[in-house]
C-alpha cells in the first residue's frame, strides 16, 4: 500500500486494488468530480489546470475541439485587451 492512495478505496472502491493504475485513475477522477468549485483566482487557475490535463489526454477530434476552444478564448481575450487599450489611449489623448 502506498501513502498517497485515495481514501476512496476504503469507502467507494472497496475491493479494488489500490496499486492498479486504472483503479487509481478512476479514484482520481471521482475526487475531481466531487471537488467543490472555488470562486477565487486560485479556483479558476485550478480549473484551467484541470482543463489542460484533460485536453492533453485527448486524441483525435476531441483534442482538435479542445484546441479550438482554447484558441477562441485567446482570440476573445486579445480582442478585449485591444479594445480596452484603445479606449484608454483615446481617453488620454
UniProtKB/TrEMBL annotation:
Keyword tags: Membrane, Transmembrane, Transmembrane helix
Keyword match Transmembrane helix: yes
Lineage: superkingdom: Bacteria
Residue ranges of the TM segments: 64-90
Transmembrane helix found in the keyword field: yes
Name recorded for this polypeptide: DUF3040 domain-containing protein
Amino acid at each position: 500500500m502506498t501513502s498517497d492512495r485515495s481514501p476512496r478505496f476504503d469507502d467507494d472502491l472497496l475491493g479494488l486494488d489500490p496499486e492498479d493504475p486504472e483503479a487509481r485513475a478512476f479514484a482520481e477522477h471521482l475526487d475531481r468530480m466531487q471537488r467543490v468549485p472555488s470562486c477565487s483566482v486560485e479556483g479558476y487557475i485550478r480549473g484551467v489546470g484541470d482543463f489542460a490535463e484533460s485536453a492533453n489526454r485527448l486524441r483525435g477530434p476531441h483534442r482538435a475541439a479542445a484546441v479550438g476552444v482554447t484558441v477562441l478564448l485567446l482570440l476573445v481575450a486579445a480582442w478585449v485587451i485591444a479594445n480596452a487599450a484603445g479606449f484608454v489611449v483615446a481617453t488620454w489623448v
